[in-house]
Design brief:
By secondary structure, the chain is an alpha+beta fold. Helices cover 45% and strands 13% of the residues. The strands form 3 sheets. Strands 1, 5, 6, 7 and 8 form a 5-stranded mixed beta sheet that branches. Strand 7 (296-299) and strand 8 form a beta hairpin. Helix 8 packs across helix 11 (173-186) and helix 9 packs across helix 11 (173-186).
Length: 346
């Protein structure tokens, strides 16, 4: 029995009952793949249902505002996915007359769609013989064939794609792709894989040579940067505040309280002495109180943010026109959302 046949046989008996597996609608499959790019299945499921409820078709998503899309995505992280999703929906609706691309070569033109996502949609929805390669697939192939080429190197990306393409089932590429991904997620796991019950263990190089913990190989990670954020949380006596729209970075077009970014943790005196604080509160009398005595550490893939929220109370302020009750309607990063939940419950 071939590699593909064994995987598909295992998959048909052991696959999870996931909502996107009961459809071949390319819009729904695309939505699920974008959500699951950087997200666990158990976390992404709720967002998948929410998006389909609010935007049941690509037209509905295209006609939504970016603010609506970002608000619905809030808490899922990697917000460029949501922005790209929206851009691509508008492209499909306005440029392609609402007809979703049906080939790998057309799918990969969509913003936010790379080799993996294009391969997944093309094979599952349109039966195109193009192999997916994600973290699960890298792990299965590296262990089974004993490949020690770093998976995040240019050479590794090409090598693993080539191997995956050679193995894919010509008759049922969609099921093959889902099988190898499910196999990696549930059996050939990163830690404590179920090698003893693996249907491929008799021919697995890593199992034979006891290299399970050594494969796959990854090049050294990027150094984590530390950033220090000081948010100015304005609160007037008539319950008004101010949030600014981010114009760059991972939280582009999301809202936040005015931000002072520093090279290290600062105290109240340094906070008040900062130029941005002086520009906002030129002549206004204020009282300042730190909401969290210890910085809140918000960990992202390549940076750790150490955040302080400074509550600045004042009688009135020209820029503070947003009612506190309206704040929850705006799309904000998870860091801000967590603060708001704590602040409003105090």
């Amino acid at each position: 029995m071939t590699f593909s046949n064994k995987l598909i046989q295992w998959y048909l008996y052991n696959k999870r009952d996931l909502p996107w597996r009961s459809t071949k609608n390319p819009y729904a499959i695309w939505l699920s793949e974008i959500i699951l790019q950087q997200t666990r299945v158990d976390q992404g499921m709720a967002y998948y249902y929410k998006f389909l409820e609010h935007f049941p078709t690509v037209k509905d998503l295209a006609l939504a505002s970016e603010e609506q899309v970002l608000k619905l995505w809030q808490g899922l992280g990697y917000y460029s996915r949501a922005r790209n999703l929206h851009v691509s929906a508008k492209y499909v609706y306005y440029t392609l007359n609402g007809v979703f691309p049906s080939t790998y070569n057309e799918l990969i033109k969509l913003k936010g769609v790379g080799d993996y996502t294009a391969s997944a949609i093309a094979s599952i929805c349109f039966n195109e013989t193009t192999a997916v390669v994600d973290g699960n697939v890298y792990r299965v192939l590296a262990r089974y064939f004993g490949i020690d080429t770093p998976i995040n190197s240019t050479k590794g990306i090409k090598e693993f794609k080539s191997v995956a393409q050679e193995l894919i089932s010509v008759n049922d590429p969609g099921t093959h792709n889902q099988a190898v991904m499910e196999f990696g997620a549930r059996l050939c796991k990163p830690q404590n894989p179920f090698c003893s019950s693996c249907p491929l263990n008799e021919s697995c190089a890593a199992f034979e040579k006891k290299l399970i913990k050594n494969l796959p190989v990854k090049e050294k990670k990027i150094k984590i940067k530390k950033k220090y954020f000081n948010y100015i949380v304005i609160q007037t006596i008539n319950n008004k505040t101010f949030l600014e729209k981010r114009e760059e970075g991972i939280w582009l077009n999301m809202y936040q309280f005015p931000l002072i970014e520093t090279s290290k943790i600062i105290n109240e005196q340094q906070f008040i002495a900062h130029q941005k604080f002086s520009e906002i509160f030129t002549t206004t009398k204020v009282s300042v109180k730190l909401f969290n005595n210890e910085p809140i550490v918000h960990k992202l893939s390549h940076q750790h943010i150490y955040a302080k929220f400074w509550i600045v109370k004042t009688t009135s302020l020209k820029m503070a026109v947003l009612d506190w009750n309206e704040v929850e309607k705006l799309p904000v990063p998870k860091l801000i959302d967590n603060f708001l939940n704590q602040f409003n419950n105090n």
